[in-house]
């Protein structure tokens, strides 16, 4: 796991401490995504294929998972389907990554249970948008009840 001391996230979209798992057999993709997300103080861990990712998911308990579709041993579709079939992990957003963007690939990702599909090469904004669309709402939801309780207790 890597974290960064820099905090470049906008104040209304703080990602500090967000746990992100990136699963890809490309070392370049892993390093690039890890570097981009570490700038926002995300805790990032990586796996080189779906088979390696499964025990990492159990130990790391990520808030969001990015998975390449084409990998050795256990591909992204199979990995996503296994995650979504497990009651302990099915609510973790899974974002599929691929250089293929055909209708068949999109449909196959949806059937496996993916929450979104990003086409490679992706940008910093693509990664952040996926995170904000699928995780930022949960962060706000978790914080709001604490604020309400504190306000109610202070009256």
Give the helix/strand class: alpha/beta
State the end-to-end distance.
42 Å
Uncertain segments of ≥5 residues (pLDDT<50)? 1-12, 140-155
What proportion strand?
A: 15-25%
Written as H for each helix and E for each strand, in order along the chain, the element string is EHEHEHEHEH
State the total count of DSSP E strands: 5
What's the arrangement of strands in the largest beta sheet?
2-1-3-4-5
Task: Please identify the oligomeric state.
Answer: single chain
Modified residues (4-aspartylphosphate): 68
Domain Response regulatory: 19-135
Keywords: Phosphoprotein, Two-component regulatory system
Protein name: Twitching motility protein PilG
SSE arrangement:
Elements: E1 19-23, H1 27-38, E2 43-47, H2 50-60, E3 64-68, H3 76-85, E4 94-98, H4 103-112, E5 116-119, H5 124-153
Helix pairs in contact: 2-3, 3-4
Keywords: Phosphoprotein, Two-component regulatory system
Domain Response regulatory: 19-135
Modified residues (4-aspartylphosphate): 68
Can you describe this structure?
With 155 residues, the chain is of the alpha/beta class. The protein has one domain (11-153): Response regulator (Rossmann fold, 3-Layer(aba) Sandwich), CATH 3.40.50. Helices cover 47% and strands 15% of the residues. It is built from 5 helices and 5 strands, in the order βαβαβαβαβα. The protein has a 5-stranded parallel sheet with strand order 2-1-3-4-5, sandwiched between helices. The longest helix has 30 residues, at 124-153. The radius of gyration is 16 Å and the shape is globular. The N and C termini lie far apart (42 Å).
């Amino acid at each position: 796991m890597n974290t960064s001391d820099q905090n470049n996230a906008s104040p209304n979209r703080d990602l500090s401490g967000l746990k992100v798992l990136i699963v890809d057999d490309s070392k370049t993709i892993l390093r690039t995504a890890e570097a981009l997300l570490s700038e926002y103080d995300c805790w990032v861990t990586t796996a080189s294929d779906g088979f390696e990712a499964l025990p990492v998911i159990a130990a790391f308990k990520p808030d969001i998972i990015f998975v390449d579709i084409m990998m050795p041993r256990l591909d992204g579709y199979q990995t996503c389907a296994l995650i979504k079939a497990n009651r302990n992990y099915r609510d973790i957003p899974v974002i599929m990554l691929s250089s293929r963007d055909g209708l068949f690939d999109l449909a196959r990702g949806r059937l496996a249970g993916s929450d979104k599909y990003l086409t490679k090469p992706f940008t910093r904004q693509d990664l952040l948008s996926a995170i904000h669309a699928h995780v930022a709402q949960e962060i706000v939801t978790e914080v709001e009840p604490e604020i309400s309780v504190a306000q109610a207790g202070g009256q």
